[in-house]
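Please fill in the sequence for the structure shown.

STRUCTURE ENCODING:
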C-alpha cells in the first residue's frame, strides 16, 4: 500500500514538472501587429456600433511581468491610455491560453514569439469583442 502511494506521488510530481516545463516563457513586452474588434452599447445603455480592422482597435501592448509555470500575470495597454491587469493560464497543450481581467475574459494561443489574444467584455455598460495578433519585442 505504501509503495502505491509513493509511486502515485512520484507520478504526480513528475507530471506537474513536465507540464510547467512545456510552456513558453511569456515574460516581456508584446506589441500589437494587427487587430479586429467590434463594440456596441447594451440594451440599457445604447451606443453606436463600431467595427474595426485597425491595428489600434484593440490592445496595443501586453506586458507579462510574472510567470510561474503555466500561470502568468501582466497588464494590457489600450489606445485611450486605459490599462488592465490580466491573469492567465496555459492549457495542457502548452500553447492555448485562458485569461481574465476586471473588464473581460478571453482565450488565445502562443507559438514561438507570436501570440493571439482574443477577449470579450463582461461589462453591463458595453459589449466588446476583439482579437489582437502580438509579437514579442523584448
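FILLED IN BY: designer on duty
SEQUENCE:
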Amino acid at each position: 500500500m505504501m509503495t502505491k502511494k509513493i509511486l502515485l506521488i512520484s507520478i504526480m510530481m513528475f507530471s506537474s514538472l513536465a507540464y510547467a516545463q512545456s510552456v513558453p516563457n511569456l515574460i516581456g513586452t508584446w506589441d500589437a501587429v494587427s487587430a479586429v474588434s467590434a463594440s456596441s452599447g447594451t440594451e440599457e445603455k445604447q451606443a453606436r456600433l463600431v467595427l474595426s480592422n485597425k491595428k489600434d482597435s484593440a490592445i496595443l501592448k501586453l506586458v507579462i511581468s510574472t510567470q510561474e509555470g503555466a500561470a502568468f500575470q501582466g497588464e494590457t495597454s489600450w489606445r485611450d491610455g486605459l490599462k488592465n491587469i490580466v491573469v492567465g493560464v496555459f492549457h495542457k497543450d502548452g500553447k492555448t491560453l485562458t485569461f481574465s481581467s476586471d473588464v473581460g475574459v478571453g482565450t488565445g494561443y502562443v507559438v514561438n514569439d507570436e501570440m493571439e489574444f482574443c477577449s470579450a467584455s463582461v461589462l453591463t455598460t458595453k459589449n466588446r469583442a476583439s482579437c489582437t495578433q502580438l509579437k514579442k519585442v523584448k
